[in-house]
Design brief:
This protein is mostly helical and 394 residues long. The protein contains 15 helices and no strands. 46% of the residues are buried.
Length: 394
């Protein structure tokens, strides 16, 4: 059930059916994917592992561990992995485009309104209703994934260590590598004698962005300049939307001087307010600086590196899992990835559940998911409607 056959070997009608299925699933996910990467990944796990059984939960976690080791938006890269596994290269392209498109279009609409009126009116009531539902979806995914990833005391110890070090300020990539190395060495300790020099080391596939230089000027940025600027950001950026904010501030405010700090903050707010990946902030900035062509160029530029990286990385993951050393390392990386997802979830919960209404909505949503197995798609829509009505009444 969980194999990945050569899609080209399938009959043409079956191939087309798969492509339509991939498009439908990720377009729908893209429309309701509020709450950031942790929420997006939780929704994918529910839809594609639990319900449709495209991949096994173990393979899903291998994808998650791999996306944490490369730059770019994690949830988009998860969509690409899942689409590639289900439908080959065409599936990769379809899943990525369909997941990104709803966010990019909604950001573009808000960018046009912003350019005309100088502000963005946020639907705060709708978001207040959506956020606690999203928290329930994340908690459900953490419970299910935890049963798969935490295989014993060693994986549990790696997860606890990752949480502790992250709270002390250690960033994600060193934590993932450390957890992978610890589990790899402990599980293979009987083979270490005289072979330490031969132990394979895991490292990010792309070097860190410390020396990133864009090489464009404010006067000549243009459509091509926007594309290459955002391409380099997408190829080197690790971390959350807050890291993206730092990159954008450095390039567009400090160095090029083509945006104000307020415009930049508004751009990031729109990226977080709309569904889908926060990297669609690029769409907003691209429109402000270059109209519709600039929006298209910026969006393509920031997401293209993820398509390329997943295309090359996806076929390697099963080979890594087949190796004793790398299989153990992946177990450690997966445990740390789940732990970091839990840390992010706690932070989201603190900001999302702020009163009796949101607390009740989160609890009822979790009950609906665990007890009645209601689709999260409908719960999110219901949460947004209830939040809107609550704002009108109170």
């Amino acid at each position: 059930m969980f194999s990945n056959p050569d899609v080209k070997a399938l009959p043409l009608p079956e191939r087309h059916r798969r492509y339509r299925e991939i498009a439908t699933v990720f377009l729908r996910l893209g429309i309701v994917a509020f709450g950031g990467p942790a929420a997006h990944i939780a929704m994918m796990e529910e839809e594609l592992v639990q319900k449709r059984k495209w991949v096994a939960r173990e393979q899903f976690m291998d994808f998650l561990g791999a996306t944490n080791l490369i730059p770019g938006p994690n949830s988009t890269e998860m969509a690409l992995h899942l689409g590639f596994t289900r439908g080959g290269l065409a599936g990769l392209v379809i899943s990525g485009v369909c997941f990104i498109l709803p966010a990019a279009l909604s950001v573009l609409v808000l960018a046009v309104l912003y350019a005309r009126h100088g502000q963005v009116r946020e639907l705060t009531g709708v978001m207040d209703g959506i956020k606690p539902v999203v928290m329930a979806v994340i908690l459900q995914a953490l419970l299910r994934l935890g049963k798969t990833v935490i295989k014993g005391p060693l994986a549990l110890g790696a997860a606890v260590l990752a949480v502790g070090l992250n709270l002390l300020g250690i960033s994600e990539i060193p934590l993932l590598l450390l957890a992978g190395a610890i589990v790899m060495l402990v599980e293979n300790r009987s083979h270490l004698s005289g072979r330490l020099a031969a132990v394979p080391l895991m490292s990010p596939l792309v070097p860190p962005a410390a020396g990133l230089s864009m090489g464009t000027s404010a006067a000549s940025i243009g459509t091509a300049g926007l594309f290459f600027t955002f391409f380099k950001i997408g190829a080197f950026l690790y971390g959350s939307g807050y890291v993206l904010l730092a990159f954008l501030e450095s390039e567009f405010v400090t160095r090029l001087g083509v945006l104000t700090n307020q415009q930049l903050l508004d751009a990031v707010a729109v990226g977080q307010f709309t569904p889908g990946p926060v990297f669609t902030t690029a769409t907003f900035i691209g429109y402000l600086l270059g109209g519709y062509g600039g929006a298209a160029a910026a969006t393509a530029g920031i997401f293209l590196p993820s398509f390329v990286l997943v295309f090359f990385l996806n076929p390697i993951i099963p080979r890594l899992r087949a190796s004793k050393w790398f299989s153990a390392a992946l177990d450690g990386v997966n445990a740390a990835s789940l732990a970091l997802m839990a840390v992010v979830s706690v932070k989201l919960g603190i900001s999302s559940v702020t009163g009796w209404f949101t607390a009740a909505l989160a609890a009822l949503s979790l009950l609906a998911l665990l007890r009645f197995r209601i689709n999260s798609f409908y719960l999110i829509l219901a949460g947004g409607l209830l939040g809107f009505l609550y704002q009108l009444v109170f």
